[in-house]
Each structure stands twice: as structure tokens, then as C-alpha cells.
Design brief:
Layout lengths: L1 E14 L2 E14 L3 E4 L8 E4 L4 E15 L2 E16 L2 E4 L6 E10 L4 E10 L2 E2 L15 E2 L2 E12 L3 E5 L1
Antiparallel strand pairs: 1-2, 2-5, 3-4, 5-6, 6-7, 6-8, 8-9, 9-12, 10-11, 12-13
């Protein structure tokens, strides 16, 4: 059981005769009845129990979509997440969830239906469940390092029936 509420603002704009959109989102989910997966109590156990306390997820996202030149679209976004749960050891950030995320997508389509698309995503460090009870060689730092993902693809459409894709 959860309550989800928030707001969205979206504004279209034009610069140099090209259209774009700015979008801002802020949403909160308050969990009232939740099965909690606790990986912090012991590195050798996955404890599952009913939520006793608070659990919430807050999300703020800003996004800009703009046609930089004809047939060349750009999307840039940033998302901040605050996701916490009351565990037996107290209120902690949920493990394996990046607090900060950034995204950039560049898409170009030629007149003869060739499509080129590139995406870069950056994710900040993620909390790792407590492994301090493990022997020294099997302990990890409290947070995983930041990382980036890069995806690229080329697509050729042949009419409305089929496409060839590599990525």
C-alpha cells in the first residue's frame, strides 16, 4: 500500500525557429504497507519482513528536449532520487539505487530514413549493503563507484514494413 503524489510542469519554447520543451517533475511515494528486503542485518542472510516505520521515494527530474538543427534532436535530463526505508538498524538509503542520474540523447535522421542515435547515462555511487561482518577479503566499501553507460545504434528503415538495426 502506497500513496503517490506530485506535480509536473511542462513548457514549450522556440529558439532560432526550432521547437523544444522543458519539463520538471517532482513526485513522492509514501509506502504504508511494504515487504522490506533487509540485506544489512547480515551479509549471509536476506531478511524479509513487514515495514515497521517509514519508507518513501522522492524523485525530482528536469528534462530539456530541443531540435538543435533540422532532424537532429537532443534530450538532456537529470534525476535526483531520495529513497529510504526503516530497517531494523534504522532509516537507511535503499541499497543499489543511485541518488543522482544524468542522461543525454542525440538522435539524427536523414531524408532517406537512416537513423543515428547515441545515449550517455551517468549514475552516481550506490549504497552497498553492510558487509563489515564478512572476512576482510570479502568486505566492500559502503558505496559502489559512479559509472557511465554509452549506447549507440544505427537503423535503416525500408518503407513501413521492416528495418535493419545495429547497436
Amino acid at each position: 500500500v502506497a500513496w503517490n503524489y506530485g506535480m509536473n510542469f511542462s513548457q514549450d519554447f522556440r529558439v532560432n525557429y526550432r521547437s523544444g520543451t522543458i519539463t520538471l517533475d517532482y513526485f513522492i511515494t509514501d509506502f504504508r504497507n511494504q515487504a522490506v528486503l533487509d540485506l544489512d542485518a547480515s551479509p549471509r542472510e536476506a531478511n524479509i519482513y513487514a515495514l515497521q516505520g517509514r519508507s518513501f521515494a522522492k524523485s525530482l527530474q528536469a528534462q530539456v528536449d530541443y531540435q538543435l538543427i533540422r532532424r537532429f534532436d537532443v534530450r538532456i535530463a537529470y534525476r535526483w532520487l531520495d529513497v529510504k526505508t526503516d530497517y531494523l538498524s534504522g532509516l537507511l538509503p535503499r541499497p543499489l539505487i543511485s541518488r543522482h542520474r544524468a542522461f543525454a540523447n542525440f538522435a539524427y535522421e536523414t531524408k532517406n530514413k537512416w537513423k543515428f542515435d547515441g545515449t550517455v547515462q551517468w549514475l552516481s555511487g550506490q549504497r552497498i549493503p553492510d558487509l563489515s561482518q564478512n572476512p576482510t577479503g570479502y568486505q566492500l566499501a559502503g558505496y559502489a563507484p559512479d559509472y557511465a553507460l554509452v549506447n549507440m545504434q544505427v537503423t535503416k528503415d525500408f518503407g513501413n514494413r521492416w528495418s535493419v538495426y545495429i547497436g
